[in-house]
Amino acid sequence: MLILGIDPGTRILGYSLIDTDGSAPRLVVMDVLYLRKIVDFHLRMRKIFDTTQRIIDSYHPDHLAIEAPFAGKNVQSMLKLGKAQGVAIGAALSRELSYTEYEPAAIKQRVTGNGNAAKEQVAAMLQGVFGFDSIPQYLDASDALAVAYTCHLELSDPLGDIRQQLKPTRVRKSKKQQWADFVSANPERVG
User: Residue 31 catalytic?
Assistant: First the structure.
C-alpha cells in the first residue's frame, strides 16, 4: 500500500509518500510545496489543489493521510489551515482517493509515545525508522511523513488506539478523599 501524507499549510505544505509493502515501510518521497512567494491566497489554494493532483497522478497512492488543523490561539490561522486541508482533500477526492484525518497530538503520540513531543523529536524518531540522512530543512516535510507513518501504524494495528484507551489510568483523589481513605483504613491511628 502506498500512503500519501500531507501536513497542510498556507505558506509551506509538507508531503510524503511511504510504501508499506514488505516487512518495513519504505520512504518514497518527502518534500515541501513552498507557497510563501504566492501573494494571492486564492492562487495558493489553486497551487495546493494542482500539486496534490499532480502528486496523486505521478505516484498513484492508495490512501491519503492528512493532519487536521489544531485549535490554536489565532482563529484566522486555523481557518486558513482548514482551507488548505480542505483543498488537498478535495484534490484527493477528485481522484477518488480515500483519506483519513489525524489530530496533531495523536500523530505525535503514535510516532514518539508523547502527544506533546516537539517537531524535532518527531523528525528524529522518523529518521531512525526510515533511515534518511538528515532532518529536513522544513519540518513540514517530516510532519507529513509522520502523518503517513501514523496511518501505516493504525492500519497495521487497528486496535492500538483502543488498547491505549483501555490502559488503567491513575485517578487522583482530593486531599479530603485521601484523608477519609486513610482514616477508614487506620481507625486505630486516629483518635
Answer: no
